[in-house]
Amino acid sequence: RYLPFCKLPGRVMGIRLLRFTSVVIIVLLLVAGALTALLPNIKDDKMPNLRREPKPQSQSASDSFTLIMQTYNRTDLLLKLLNHYQAIPQLHKVIVVWNNIGEKIPEEMWNSLGPHPVPVVFKVQTVNRMRNRLQNFPELETKAVLMMDDDTLISAHDLAFAFSVWQQFPEQIVGFVPRKHISTPSGVYSYGSFELQNPGFGNGDQYSMVLIGAAFFHSGYLEDFQRQPEAVYALIDETQNCDDIAMNFLVAKHTGKPSGVFVKPVDIRNLEKDTNSGYSGMWHRAEHLLQRSYCVNKLVNIYDGMPLKYSNIMISQFGFPNYANHKNKM
Amino acid sequence: RYLPFCKLPGRVMGIRLLRFTSVVIIVLLLVAGALTALLPNIKDDKMPNLRREPKPQSQSASDSFTLIMQTYNRTDLLLKLLNHYQAIPQLHKVIVVWNNIGEKIPEEMWNSLGPHPVPVVFKVQTVNRMRNRLQNFPELETKAVLMMDDDTLISAHDLAFAFSVWQQFPEQIVGFVPRKHISTPSGVYSYGSFELQNPGFGNGDQYSMVLIGAAFFHSGYLEDFQRQPEAVYALIDETQNCDDIAMNFLVAKHTGKPSGVFVKPVDIRNLEKDTNSGYSGMWHRAEHLLQRSYCVNKLVNIYDGMPLKYSNIMISQFGFPNYANHKNKM
């Protein structure tokens, strides 16, 4: 039947209105849904967190460094330190050398607590060896390596400054822990620190090594390390010690200069005491220092000479933390 | 007559004995005389002084430095400082740039108080100019120059250390007084020290100049200085200031690096107050700092750009004076 418009206003209008209203409501819901998706997520820490896709590596390989941290039986410290180190400016990537043989890496937990500022790679090891950290990891893309012990906390300021110093001395180990060897009349060498007699070149003390457990060095040296005499690996494996002394020998031989440049840290802390594992580092072993003297002498045999050279250069950051730390009463 | 031996014992024996005794006595006297000539001369200061001929220069030109000290109206300070500086190890020679126009050099007095450890040359000037000290003196034989103001006393330890640092950075001015320039939004530069705002490259402060009034630098730069645009000499003469800023521009342009390396002095003193002359240095003039900002801007015009670069490297001597000045509570 013909239903003229004027006769069916109520019913026709009703249906059209219904359709119109439905459309409007649906459109509004869609808009609302879109807006919700764009809203910031409010987290417990009250910081606005704009959720975004993890970006590809934005730091260029020449202006950033890779942190290599070996860990054994101190996962609580490792995770505490990773929270700090993952945020250091100019960090490209973290490589965790997992010496906890047979134990699962905390990757699931790590990922569940993401996102993280940089990629962290857990390298599972098959044998618990000190020299595992000195492999030439394929994941390493930067020229610079920062090697840290898993119980050492050093401030971001110190690391940023030391990295800038390394960029001026890229051939050398630039770090925070200086040590030295001394020669004795018998020709036997001894290893130690400030407590040992000065080598006797003028005033003051000298150092001839910078330990790699808190230092920057060129990634090329990891490559070089793979080409050392077998006896070096045997020595490190026998002592589970001295990999750092071996690296200093390698660098000194390569450069003909002092192997390291010492940067005086403003804030460096050893967190050993804070671990729940009850495990304390290798350096507490009674024979630790004697072993290191032993290593120096063995390495001199292996390399047929003493390549280490002395330095007395101590570098600090001008005007930091104290803006006039260089003022003198003139 | 034949005098048998047995018959003349008394007289013959007598003559032979006399001859023999005479010979013995003469020999003894000669020996005694020789011994006397070899004995040390005891002087009033109770130190044995083995008088010897002044030796020719025993320091090689590459392992020693020449002190250049310009002096005006402070001869009492000059002589006090010379007594100290003439004894610095590795010093080859002293060149005193005598800006006391028309006044006799104290050469007679100097010689009468000899011997001196090294030669001291007094270079008489005809005009009292700040830049007189930047001539390429023919007496200069060493690669290294130590330039000191005539009112600055710095310890031998500091100088020995800074010289060893210069040998590691021979292209740069290695010294004890850091300064900086800053850029302002208008493009006009300002000169100053720690009191000026940091240039803003990360934490802490930066320096872009090391003043030559207490520094080591390569003698080649004195040669280079003779080949600068006339406008540079005009500027220094007009202000009687800024020769050191000009040198920093020269070195920065030449190396493309920061012009200086700052070594933190342990003991540096200004002896200005101690002079009898009542003369106090140019830096007390009211316009001194403003002049130096003026010079920075003029030099940027002359050299068509700002070559100065910033550094925040501060070098100290490891383990001196405090044998554990690098210890950290770990």
UniProtKB/TrEMBL annotation, chains A, B:
Q: Which GO terms describe its biological process?
A: N-acetylglucosamine metabolic process; UDP-N-acetylgalactosamine metabolic process
Q: Which cofactor does this sequence's record say it needs? A: Mn(2+)
Question: Which Gene3D superfamilies is this protein grouped with?
Answer: Spore Coat Polysaccharide Biosynthesis Protein SpsA, Chain A
Q: What is its EC number?
A: 2.4.1.223
Q: Name one GO molecular function term.
A: metal ion binding
Q: Where is the Glycosyl transferase domain?
A: 65-320
Recite the UniProt keywords alphabetically: Disulfide bond, Glycoprotein, Glycosyltransferase, Manganese, Membrane, Metal-binding, Signal-anchor, Transferase, Transmembrane, Transmembrane helix
Q: Transmembrane region positions?
A: 20-42
What's its job? Glycosyltransferase required for the biosynthesis of heparan-sulfate and responsible for the alternating addition of beta-1-4-linked glucuronic acid (GlcA) and alpha-1-4-linked N-acetylglucosamine (GlcNAc) units to nascent heparan sulfate chains.
Instruction: Tell me which family the UniProt entry assigns to this protein.
Output: Belongs to the glycosyltransferase 47 family.
- Protein name (Swiss-Prot/TrEMBL): Exostosin-like 2
Organism equals Todus mexicanus
Gene behind the chain: Extl2
